[in-house]
Fold this protein.
Amino acid sequence: MTSESLETQAETPPESIVCRDVHKWFGDFHVLRGLNVTIHQAEVVVVFGPSGSGKSTFIRTLNHLEEHQRGEIIVNGVALTHDIRNIDAVRRDVGMVFQSFNLFPHLTVMQNITLAPRRVRKWSRDQAEATATELLERVGILEQADKYPAQLSGGQQQRVAIARALAMQPKIMLFDEPTSALDPEMIKEVLDVMRELATSGMTMIVITHEMGFAREVADRMMMFDEGTILEAGTPAQIFDDPQNERTKLFLSQIL
Amino acid sequence: MATTPEVLPPSTSVGIVGWLRANLFSTALNAAFTVVTGVLSVLMLVAIFRWVVFSADWSPVTESLKLFLVGQYPTEELWRVGAVVVGAAALMGVSWAVWGGVLRTFARIMAAGSLIVALSPLEPAGFDLAVRAWYLGGAASIVLGFALARAAALDPKWVMRAWVLGFFLGMALIWGFEETSLGESLRGFFGAGAALTVVLGVAGWVGRFPAGVVLRWLAWGWGALFLVTIVMFWGLGQTDIAPRVGTSRWGGLLLTFVLALVGIAASFPIGVLLALGRRSRLPVLKGFSITFIELVRGVPLVTLLFMTVIIVPLFLPRGTSFDLVLRALFAITLFSSAYMAENIRGGLAAVPLGQIEGAKALGLGGFQTMLFIVLPQALRAVIPAIVGQFISLFKDTTLVVIVGLLDVLGIGKALFLGNVRWFGAQAEVYLFIAAVFWVFTFAMAYASRKLEDTLGVGTR
């Protein structure tokens, strides 16, 4: 407790995301029950917990793919309201990577990556393609630029999806179980890209059960259960000295 | 070392003999069937061949080719139709160079066909040197268009625009220009402009297009209207280059094509808007779309044609006359767009929600998501249904016979009703008409198959 507040005072990294008492219902089902989260710039937060605990809903509220019904969410200093311009402004600066990739099957890899920069950021085609080429090289699949998503392996598709999100030059990246739909031998290539991204100083919120990755990369981990954050702390605290019984049980099941 | 013994291939399971054995003569019963159907087929083919070549009387067709092609279009103005066809042929050649694929096939067949017609030894009535020259010009312009586009390495975007522009220019040329007073021109200009503004405004509201997009369309629309007004009502009217040819004189294949092409071109965007409207969350819009679609789909096309042609004018002020072909087009477009909307709605429903989320997460707005992500996938998913709709629209144009228009079928009927000599040749005339329709519908179906193959590259 004291050490954390001391740390913030010492470095004072600006706040990226602030959630205050966030609630969300699906019909009568209370998915998010009063979340209070502050995430600072360049922080890597791993979110885990049993399915149905609201972790996916939580990060989807951060770019307003889901609407929260009570409380306050401030992303990069912009409060998320119903105002569509507000939402579009936030989405431009928040990249998202989905479990099922959600690449556009009718566009080539290059077109997938350049579409949003050209249409939303209004970049020229040359500028967008130059950036896309850089990103494809960074995720290691430059040679696939003219293929269609269906012609790539799952791991390659997810790396394209990461490049596509990065092309908008986001300040925050959200990962919704990015490796859950992948065959085991492809998980590593995606995690490698994410690891590189984390060391480059990107603010990241990652839902994953890849605990090796979490221990190595995360600054902070959050255990979700029934719409609340049951326990949060550094990987060392969570793995070596979990306080909550449910956290212990859950970790023992997946490790 | 021990070698494995050589194994000879089993006796002919491949090749023609193998195929025959496997498929036609596998059992005694099968062989018997093969022989019997083979003999029957040969007998039938021989009979058909003998009838077509020796006993059939093709004179009603060969002596009325002009009627079948353009109806009563004045002979001295036929150069306008010829010019439009030659222009389209040139664009076809350009498209062959730019896109290849199925267009290459069509362009080659058209060029070869025109060449054969131009040089054919047959001499039906009215088929003089001038007509042959037009056909030769068609073939030549395909080749010329191809060569020029190849050399210039054209951007496909411009070819697309040329087709759209050519479509309107061609229609205008075939219709012709009429001298009118300044007052009438201005009335036409502002009337059409007001209608355009309302339509675009509603479309923009329905589709939730950004204001900038709507304004840009409006500017283009008013600009185009201005040009059209200058040319159609005022400028060329006094020069007498291409006097108005009333639609009552259009007929035959020309009329069929105008009805089908305009019907397709108009019903497609309307269908897209209706489909979007039906899926809209705005109750008024949704209600209107559902009501329109269900009302129109519940009524036979014949009834719609009667309504627009005969009943609607009764409610208009006395003296307002609406062009007959325009009224028929109105009915055909209404009818087709309702079906088109339902086809496209099916495609919209087939686009996974994840696609929309992926687009939104990238910051694309609702309009951009629809335009770049949802519609391309939705339309691609329903190409077979859309082309099927186009094909039935093409065939349904024959129904305009009942309101007194003479399309290909109408000409055929009029022929032996008007000429006792040909009364016995009904089979020949109908067979000819059937062949004409089959050629075009088959071409459309073939193009659709090829298009699916080409676009199938990126599908999951």
